[in-house]
Amino acid sequence: MEEKFRQQASNIVKIVLFGPESTGKTTLSQQLARHYNTVWVPEYAREYLQNKWNNERKTCEPEDLLPIAEGQIKLENDLATKASQVLICDTDLLETKVYSEAYYIGSCDPVLEKYALENTYDLYFLTYIDVPWVEDDLRDKPNERKQMFEHFRNALEKYDRPYILLKGDKKTRLETAVKAIDKLLKKYDKHAG
């Protein structure tokens, strides 16, 4: 049962875009995938919750979190087999855990928490709130961006995840991210060779 939340082992560099809603994660994921001629893992929650909204006019509820986590890891594991030397992830289970705790009074399903902490990535890019908030059917916290950002930063620090804060326009963020990933890939090549 729980195996469906576990990452499959791979020898590629895994990068996560991490942060509150409407901070440029998807845009940067696509740019990085193009730059490295690889695939990117979309945020499964967006598809899942958009379907729920379209069909039921309901937003995310606690019982949605495990199906979202399962779908996210399945997507990541499938796409990891198609990636070149780097896999760009638009989110991970730690992000789902942060949302669970922020929205549902500090609670998180123990299975989600276990795999959010066990699954590993080489580097996180924490996206700052210095880009305009864009409204859609699923986004709902335009006035709580600073508090949500702090939830994300606190999670990375609490669980000792390697991260770089990304601020500025799209070009600046892309340049900062590419520089960091290139450095990781060089280090990775030295260990492999």
Automatic annotation (TrEMBL):
Q: Which domain of life is it from?
A: Bacteria
Q: What is this protein called?
A: AAA family ATPase
Domain NadR/Ttd14 AAA residue range list: 14-173
> What InterPro entries is this protein classified in?
NAD_biosynth-regulator, NadR/Ttd14_AAA_dom, P-loop_NTPase
Query: What Pfam families does the entry give?
Result: AAA_28 (PF13521)
